[in-house]
Amino acid sequence: MTKSNSISPNAPAIELSGAISLRSGQHSWGNQKRMALLDAIGQEGSITAAARKIGLSYKAAWDAVDTMNNLAGEALVLRSIGGPHGGGAKLTKRAHELIRLYQAVNQEHKRFIALLSRANNECFQNLELMQHMMIETSARNKLLGVVDHISPGAINDEVALTVGDGIQIIATISKESVQSLDLYPGKRAIAFIQASSVIVGLPGGDLRLSARNQLQGTVNRIVTGAVNAEVSIALEQGQIIAAMLSKESLESMDLKEEQAAYAIFKASSVMLGVLD
After folding, report:
1. Exposed (0-12), middle (13-18) or buried (19+): which is 50, by Cβ within 10 Å?
2. Contact predicate 27/71, CB 8 Å
3. Which of 14, 128, 191, 223 is the most exposed place for a label (fewest CB within 10 A)?
């Protein structure tokens, strides 16, 4: 089994980016694309030409102009219909003021991003951790790892994800999923496992199971409900795997905290996700 001393050093560096937007109450009416549209209208004298210049569809540009005019509380773009040149558009004085203000604020924002980008590695590692923590799914178990190897099959591929020193999770996913996620050895990925898919096993005995994932750990916590109980198993590297058991199973196994146990789940029960 291949070991990985650390996940973060092998991961691609996180990059900082951002954009300024203008809001009116709960509505956002001035983002980077819309402000670029305003600027282009001022230069081109036409909504159609401005949309073409910044890569917006004709309808999207007109909708954006209507939204900005409505939510700004006053007209920012004045339109004329007909005439020898087929009509046109021009910006109001307020629109020109907004463009100048936005460009000035955006320039300061770029300087701020550049300053953060020169921060030390610890800052980026913390930002990376924040990125992982913001992921929300219904799966109880989420483990960050690095793809160790991919074993191709006729229909499905087997992906080995290293989540700590000497700890791997095996996932069986379709070839199409491997391609769409652009998985390859060394790429970061997150394993998602439903607690209901995890079986708790006890050491000892000669019972053999077909489940590809049998992770050894220690019972960290037991939370008992009216019908079920959630058992958390702490792995050697500190990761926690939660399993959902019936109260009858909990009692029959006589599980106790700090007791040695295995978190067992099928490779087909593992869903993989990527961040980049």
Report:
1. buried
2. yes
3. 223
Instruction: Give pLDDT tens digits for 147-195.
Output: 999 999 988 999 999 988 889 999 999 999 999 899 999 998 888 999 8
Within 8 A by CB and 6+ apart from 63, the residues are none
Q: What average pLDDT does range 239-258 have in this prediction?
A: 91
CA distance 199 to 262: 8
Please list, residue by residue across 61-84, b when 16 or more beta carbons sit within 10 angstroms of its beta carbon and e when fewer do: bbebbeebbebbeeebbeeeeeee
Phi/psi at 73 (nearest 5 deg)?
A: 85, 0
Contacts of 137 (CB under 8 A, 6+ apart): 192, 273
Ordered by where they begin, the domains of the chain are: 22-119 (1.10.10.10), 136-275 (2.40.50.100)
Per-residue model confidence (pLDDT) at position 27: 54
- In this structure, the strands spanning 260-265 and 27-30 are unpaired
Residue 166 CB neighbours (<10 A): 13
